[in-house]
Design brief:
Elements lengths: L2 E5 L8 H14 L4 E5 L5 H6 L15 E2 L5 E4 L5 H9 L7 H6 L8 E5 L6 H9 L2 E7 L4 H19 L4 E10 L4 H13 L4 E7 L2 H5 L7 H4 L4 H17 L2
Parallel strand pairs: 1-5, 1-6, 2-4, 2-5, 6-7, 7-8
Antiparallel strand pairs: 3-4
Amino acid sequence: MADCITVANQKGGVGKTTTVINLAAYIAKAGKRCLVIDNDPQGNASSVLAPDYEGPCVYGSATPVKTRIANLDVIPCGADLSDYELRLQQDSQSVRVMQSLLADIRDLYDVILIDCPPNLNILSINALLASNKVLIPIQCEYYAMEGLSQMLGSLESIEHDFAHSVGLAGILLTMYEDYLALNQQVVSELRQHFPNQVFQTLIPRDVALAAAPSHSNTICEYDPLSQGSVAYLAAAKELLDGLRV
């Protein structure tokens, strides 16, 4: 059965979607069967992995579609995800819909990555209750510790309220700039507080990472020799080593 990993942070702009699509691409290139679920109404992961998709979202019982990358499938967000978000909010029993929908396909994959909106809404809760792990991308800035604290508090609340424990797949530091003393300080503090949870790989701030989505490309397609590409390759190896897939 696949390790199902929600990629989440209640703070926006930390590189969640960038992390999902690029980790997924390199996991697939490592020969592992990988599925991405776009659980964010913004649909940014879908615009890269399935730009021409016109079907339903995961809550509309969508089936995985193949991408141009071997071993990588995606369930895009679909135009109906915002409608389903409203419906789910009105039903107190709707928090485990995704868990139920994924039960039949988890055996088909080694790793499932779920992209989420930047808040703990009904979509994010569905993803976390369907997952056995969470990966938290954090931008190397002053508010990183505060955002991480909020996210970890939310995981504790989910465990308390729903009797569902989600393990930490890791904390991935993004948009790192080596010449900034503040970035170095954030990395040092996070590694001191979470010595076994922070990825050794640092994802740099890289123009290629920012440009790739505008071409509907992952970074390994757009510029495989860029700093960002090399970093996500290393991060994918770290993740797989931790999962022992």
